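Notes on consecutive records. When two proteins share a document, each keeps its own sequence and its own token line. Never mix them. Below: protein one.
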Amino acid sequence: MPGKGKSPTGGAKTGPATTQRAWQRMLSGRRLDLLDPSPLDIEIGDIAHGLARVARWNGQTEGDHAYSVAQHSLLVEQVFGMVVADATPDMLLATLLHDAPEYVIGDMISPFKATLGDDYKSVEKRLQRAIHLRFALRPDLKETLKKAIKRADRVAAFYEATRLARFDEAEAARFFGRPRGVPPETLDLAPLPAKRAQKAFIVRFEAIEAMRVDGPGSRSNI
């Protein structure tokens, strides 16, 4: 018989196997299951806190602070409102939350996302659907809206690249296209401290929510 404290193969005991944790504890006290996220475990305060501390461009940006995903989200929502004349509050909220899953999974640069492939996309999509349901949006946005958000995202990325990440305009244009209809002087890209970015995100979220509640016809089948 194997000796005390030994496994049948002669090695030291390592104790019972443990299940791999797939949830993230949030500061709100919620536990968000990354593989099966529930809308009930999603809070806007957690989203704002997380996004304000996730750096765009892997942190390779000018300034004393990282340019956060929270600021990027605000910029994309601002651009969307400028280029989509009939934008409803629901559309604005969907745009503000377009990168919300990154409060949990971080902001991976596009080349790395492509390397990870479908596994990353699957986790991201489940989180995005749960976030949409939590805030009374369609779990899957219409393709026309997704494309409009993507266009605003590319405009934001162009200006971030050229003003913060040291891309020249020709290089940025190859990746993101040249922006049209958005005067660059209207966009403030100065990186903010995390707490200020977090607060700005919450303030804008609350303003859009007020429009959704109070505005006539503010709800839309997006």
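Protein two starts on the next line and is unrelated to protein one.
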Amino acid sequence: MENLTIPIIQQADLKGKVVLVRVDHNVVKNGIIHDPYRIDATIGTLFHIISKGGKIILMTHVGRPKDKKTGEINISDKTSIQPIVDYLQQKLHIILKVPEFYAHEKQGYLGVETSVNHLIRELKEGLIDGIYMPNTRWFSGEEAKGEEADRFANQLAGLADIFINDAFGSWQAHASTVQVSKYLPSYAGFLMQKEIANLERIYHPENPFLAVVAGSKFDTKIDSLFALLKKADYLVLGGVIYNAYLCAKYGFTIKGIEEDDMQHALEFVKFAKQYADKIIELPYIIESDTMEGKLDGKNRMRNIHEIKSGSSLNYVLDIAKESFLETKVIEVFHQAKTIFVNAVMGFTPYFNEGTIALDELIDSNVNAIKLYGGGDTMQELKRLLPGLYISALDSPNYYIFTGGGAVLKAIENGTTTGLAPVKALITSGEILGKTK
């Protein structure tokens, strides 16, 4: 791990302490857990706290209950933490309780009410094993700024003696990830430490370093693409990002590419000229007449080098598997010592051959360090190649980050200290050091 004096959980005296733990258990969609990987990844931290005599209060966000336009907060079962509580109780054979607060119409919870105190008494007396706070984004102070955010963070801190941040994937500067560190001795959990350590393998990779990035929007990844193009030996693109790149470079049009994606692509192509040998273009793409599915007679393979400038294509919804049979492509993937992947190559769930071919080619390089980041990336690996996914979880040559957005943000910043929650931990550690 970077020598950044990040205070870590191993340094904390947990015996008899109430420990507030921020996790990233954002795995619920429409009230259902589709993959518990992020939950399971935090269990080591929870066991450590309990084994050292600590009493746990958990908190996470789930989904986006706040309407960005109106600011209204919608409390519903779709964004409830209850499925997470049920999962943990069943898996660990423990008793967790969720405090109930008054929900103000369109405003959510205005703060932490004193009704939680009776649960804290039960926790201290050993009548329950833990408390799981409601979705942090149900509280108006979570995504607020200034005094309102500070007030909510102070209320959260008032519940506990120590704060543990184990939510690497929750990199946004919110009350429960950043401000709470101002009010409690704060430490990085085991998962946070592990994610930062594996980020170091991207910052200081064993070369050749290959990065594979795909996505449905250019704007969310443009800055990290600039950073990766400078850092990596080779860069492979996919998805809408690749489609926009092809349009910008070769002068044809692809249906569905929006103007802002084209503007970013033009900017990227201009920047990439100084790194021309680094971008490995996948030559065979799948053009489709419809987005309704992979229908017979409605899709075809095209070679990008045979498409004339000024041509118009229908939707391009996948990379053809033939791209990954090209000698140059195989050579780059097989020679890589470090491979970073934040990529689903096709339009899910219908167009899968590009993602399957990509992941199988990566796996065939048995010696490379393979670093996967992103919820969609992980989800598609599990869906399309479940055997490979399971073996990857236990392989020392694979690491699957819990937060793809956090990884890209950290790559963009060039250091983990650029992430607001990590900055907050370091600041808390400095303050703690001065008071000793």
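For the record: Residues 19 and 56 are 5 Å apart (CA to CA).
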